[in-house]
Structure formats: structure tokens, C-alpha cells
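Example 3.2
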Amino acid sequence: MSALVALEQQCFSGDRISRRQFRYLLTKANAAVLVIESAGQLLGDAVLLFSRATSVARLYSLAVRPELRGQGLGKRLMKAVEAEAWAHHRAYLRLEVRQDNPAALRLYQSLGYRRLGEYPDYYDDHMGAWRLEKSLAADLHPELAPVPFYEQSLDFTCGAASLMMAMKCLDQGFEMSRREELRLWREATTIFMNSGHGGCGPYGLALAAVNRGFGVDIFVSESGTHLVDSVRNEEKKEVIRLVQEDMYEQLMARGVCITPSGVGMAEIEACMAKGGIALVLISSWQIYGERQAHWVVVTGYDDNFIYVNDPFVDREEGETPMDSIHMPILRAKFESMARYGRVGLQAMVVLYRGDADA
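Structure, written as C-alpha cells:
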């Protein structure tokens, strides 16, 4: 570990990985540390992070001793990184590179990486970063909806954040803001709790969208009261039931179509083919290890994966907002994730431009 820390000191003036961080990466994190050595000397290393449930790996760091640069060690490390990512069943590799590091940018571009986005003021010295991505499977070239990203600001506002992303995609004049995030959450939440804040159900999100002039379809597998699995108090359940019934009656009065069915790839593909942007309820257990209802926005699909914008950024795992954009998830895994609670609730809210007839 001392050699890894020493290499950080040699290669970087800021944004260094500390001894404590290396210890975590080597012992607890969902990560891999790859090295190149010669005669017992560390020549270079690479740190690779794996998202828990998606098919993305992220290159967190690449370091080569300064006096050895230009000898192909960086390319050797990258080839090893890609092989390691593929061995972990990751189909995409993403990384950040300083905008003032043309040599590194040329290396990545020579290996087939493309610019995915820009991240201003990314490093300690305020230098911006380019986000790059490479498909590790040659046939993965999906067309993705240009859904902008918004990171939820509170643990319980994933529904409101997802709704804002969908509305902004369909209406460029819509402004995403924290004030609007909280306004939408207040309108859409159906959960009553004394010890915590509640989340948003499908009827509440749909009604908030309808009230803003969007066309809406709803798919929901259960006709009873939604999202009450963890509620034991009968009075609280009654409040949730009454709020949901009121929302349902308002949706019926507005002519919103509510389809009593599950949510699978067939339903998602059919709605997206009509120009819809789908919000899907998932269980966050497989991604974040917590049994919570969680909303994501579908941005596209191909033969292997479904792609989502996830409003939650797991910063404790070293993620950045770019890790939550167009996250690829295996289709079968996503269908298993798209159900919540003991009853396996499945729910999807699909938005369309204006009052489009879905």
C-alpha cells in the first residue's frame, strides 16, 4: 500500500487517493486495483469501480510514474482495465480526464473512447473534466432519449426529481429547480409518517404531470392502496388510502388512462415508441442495498440493456452525477428490479408532450 500512496504523490499534485482510501478500495469497496510492476518496483496502477447493479465500470484513477510516460504503460493498463471490466460483466467503461491533459485524452481516444459529457470545476484546482465512455461490446450503440439529469436533493424526492427530468425532456421551457422539486414532492406524496418523510406513488406523480399540461399513461399492477407494506399503524394506512383515492378520482375526472398490468419491456418499448418518457418504480435493493421504493427515468433500450437516469448519486461510493446518466442495466435484471414490496407492486408513469393522446 505504501508504494501505491507514493505513486499518487509522484503523479498528482491534487485529488490524490489517500492511504485510508486505498485501504477501503482494497478491502471493502466494489473495486479492483490493477498494477504494473518490474523487479519489485511499482510502475503504474489503475483503480476500477463497479456499480452494484448496472453494467457500467468506472475508471477512477490511472497513474504511471512520470519518468516512464510515453512508453506504452498507460495503454497496457487500459487494456487490462477493459479486460477486468468485461470479466465483471460490465459492457461499458466510463472515466473522467482533465481538460488540460491532451496526452491522456489522445490515449483514451486512440482506444475508442468518446466524449459523453463535460463536468466543469471537477478537480480540486477547479479544472473541468471530460467524461468519456467506451462500449466493451461492439454491437452496443443504442439511441437514447435526451433526458437531462437532475440529482435528487433529499432521500425521499426521487419521484419528484425523475418527474422533472421527464418534463424537461418533453418541454425545454420547463425549469428544473429545488423549489420545483419540493413543490412536486408535496403534490405527489401519498405517504403519511410521524417519524420520517414520505415518497411519491404513481397516482400522485401522474396527477402532478397532468396539472402541468402533460399527457399521461399509468400502468399499475395492484388495484389496492400502494406503498403501504412498511406501514403498520392503521390510522396511517387510512390516511394513505384516502389520499390515493382522491388522486385516483381526480385522474379519472381528467380522463387519464390507468392500465391494470405489470411493467415489462413490452410495455416500456410500446410507450417509448409513441414518444413517451417513462418513470418506473424499482426496488433499490439490488443497486444500493436498501429495501426502498425508488423512481428512475428510462432513456432507452437495446437488445441487451435498458438505460435509465437515476436521480440518486451514491457519493459514498465515489460516484458523480455522470455515473447516474444513461445507466445500462441488463433487461432481465431490470424486470426483476421493477417490483416493490411483498406484493411485488409494479408501476410506471409515462409522460407525453402536451395533452397528447396516448
